[in-house]
Amino acid sequence: MAIASPPVPVQEDLNPFHIAKQQFETAAAKLNLEPGLRAMLSSPRRCLVLSLPIRMDDGTIKVFDGYRVQHNVARGPGKGGIRYHPGVTLDEVKALASWMTWKCATVNIPLGGAKGGIICDPHKLSKGELERLTRRYAAEISVIIGPDRDIPAPDVYTDGQIMAWIMDTFSMMAGGSAPAVVTGKPIFLGGSLGRNEATARGCVFVIREACREKNINLKHSTVSIQGFGNAGSIAADLLYHEGAKVIAVSDSKSGVMNQRGLDVPALLKHKQKTGSVAGFPGSEPIDNAKVLEAECDILIPAALENQITAANADRIKAKIVAEAANGPTTPAADQILHKKGVMVLPDILANAGGVTVSYFEWVQDLAADFWDEDVVNKKLEKVMVRSFNDVLAMATTHNVDMRTGAFILAIDRVAVATRTRGVWP
Predict the structure, then answer these.
(1) Residue 420's pLDDT band (boundaries 50, 70, 90)?
(2) Kindly report the CA angle at 416 between 411 and 418, in degrees rounded to 5?
(3) Does residue 219 have a known ligand-binding role?
(4) Integer Cα distance of 242 and 383 in angstroms
(5) Least C-beta-crowded within 10 Å: which of 124, 129, 248, 332?
(6) CA-closest candidate to residue 94, choices 273, 293, 338, 305
(7) Sign for the pseudo-dihedral over CA of 55, 57, 62, 63
(8) Chain centroid offset of residue 339 CA
(9) CB-neighbour burial class of residue 248 (10 A; exposed 0-12, middle 13-18, buried 19+)
(10) Calpha distance 159→173 (Å, rounded)
(11) Which residues span the membrane (predicted)?
C-alpha cells in the first residue's frame, strides 16, 4: 500500500512590493483601468537611493544606506514615514510608499504616497550618532521634500526627536523655519495634539464600526494583539477602557496571555519599567504564533509585514482582523480568511488614523492655528467612520473582501485625479 506524501507547503512570494502590486492589479482589474494608466499608478514616481557617510563617536567613518520613495502625488504632496531598521529594503520602501498613496485616497485626504528608510539598528547607535545620521539623511532628501512636495513622519524606530532634527536641518538649509516639512513633531515645535494616539484611535473607531456590522458587542469582546509598540499598546489601552477583554499581547521579545483578561494599565507600566511584556504577573508566556492564533473576536496585527500567511491563515480564529501594521497579511492569506468569513480591516483603512492626524498637523502648521485635542479626535472619528462605510459599500457593490473594496475606492480616486491632470508634456 502506497504511503501518501505529506502536503507540499505553499510557496508564497513575500516580497512586499510584489504583494503591493498584486493587490493593486486585483482591484485595477475590477475598474477596467486602461493599460497606460495602470502602468503609471503601479510604479513609483521617484526613488532616491542614498549612501550616508557618518562620523561615529570613535572617529571612524561608517556608511549607511538610505531611501526615499515618492509613489504618487496626483492628489497632493507625498506623505509617509521614515523607518530605521536593519531589515529595510528598497522594495519594502516602494511597497510602503504605494500603500500610503492608497491609504490617503481611502480616507480622502489631499495627499499622495511616499516613504523612507535607513538600514541601521538605532539601538546600537549613540544619540550623537543617531542625530548625525538623521541630519545627513535630511540634507540628502531635502532636494525632494518640503511642505508642498513631500512631508515625512515617524515610523518604525523613529519618533518626535528624529522629526525635530529633520525639521531643523531642512529649516536651516532653507534659511527660515519650516515646521510643516514633517509631522509627528513634539507639540511645542508645531506638533498636533492627539497625533501620538491617532493610529490606534483610528483603528479602534474602525473596529467599533466592524463590530456593529458583524453583530459583536465590543464591550464584551476578546482581543489579541501582536506588537506592543505605539499602535498596539495604545489600542490595547483604548479597547480595555471600552470594556473589551485583551487576552493576549506580544512584543519583539515575548508574549503573554490571560484568558480572563490582562490588566492593561498594569501591563503598560510593566513594559515601561522592564522594556518587555515578558514576566508580567498574572499571565502565562505565549509565543508570537499563539498570539495570532488565539481564540478571540478581534485580532490586531500591529508589528511588521507578512505575519499572516498561507501557512497560518487557516489557524486564525478571530472574527475581525484589524491591521494596525502595514502589510501584515499576504494575498494568499486574504483569500483563506475571506472564505472563512473573517472580516479583514485592511491597513490602508485600519491604520489610516495616523496619516489623517498627520494631515491635520500639516494643516495646523500651514495656518498657524492649532486645535484642541477633542476637536482633533472628533474630526478623526468623522473621517474613519465615513471611510469604513465607503469601503464597506464598495466591497458590497463589487462582492469582494474589504481590502479589495478599499483598493477599488482608492485607485479610482487617484485615477480620476491623474486623468484630469493629464500627462505632461
Answers:
(1) very high
(2) 90
(3) no
(4) 20
(5) 124
(6) 305
(7) negative
(8) 25
(9) buried
(10) 22
(11) none
Angstrom distances, CA of residue 4 to CA of 7, 9, 67, 137: 9, 15, 49, 56
User: Was 358 annotated as part of a binding site?
Assistant: yes
Do the bridges between strand 46-55 and strand 61-72 make them parallel or antiparallel, or are there none, so unpaired? antiparallel
Helix 353-367 with 195-214: angle, nearest 10 deg: 140
Task: Give me the long-range contacts of 135-140 (CB less than 8 A, separation at least 24).
Answer: 135/165, 135/166, 135/169, 136/52, 136/53, 136/54, 137/50, 137/52, 137/66, 137/82, 137/166, 138/165, 138/166, 138/169, 138/170, 139/169, 139/173, 140/48, 140/50, 140/52, 140/66
Model pLDDT for residues 366-380, shown as the tens digit of each residue: 999 999 999 999 999
Q: Could you give the residue numbers annotated as active site?
A: 115
Residue type, 105: A
> How far apart, in Å, are the Cα atoms of 358 and each of 111, 139, 182, 298, 423?
10, 22, 9, 26, 29
Cα–Cα distances (Å) from 383 to 47, 71, 217, in that order, read: 30, 23, 22
| Residue 42 annotated as binding site | no
Structural domains of the chain, with CATH: 42-178 (3.40.50.10860), 196-350 (3.40.50.720)
Note the pLDDT tens digit of each residue in 388-399.
999 999 999 999
Q: Which of 12, 13, 25 is closest to 403 using CA atoms?
A: 25
Ramachandran category for residue 194: left, alpha or beta (phi over 0 → left; psi -120 to 50 → alpha): left
The beta-strand segments (E) located in 126-232 are 150-154, 222-226
Q: Which residues contact 120 (CB under 8 A, 6 or more apart)?
A: 64, 84, 85, 86, 133
pLDDT (tens digit, 9 = 90+) per residue, 188-204? 999 999 999 999 999 99
Question: What is the SS3 assignment for 195?
Answer: helix
SS3 225: strand
Q: Over the stretch 6-40, which tens digit does the pLDDT of each residue have?
A: 554 557 899 999 999 999 999 999 999 999 999 99
- For 305, the 3-state DSSP assignment is coil
Residue 199 marked in a binding site: yes
Q: Is 214 annotated as a binding residue?
A: no
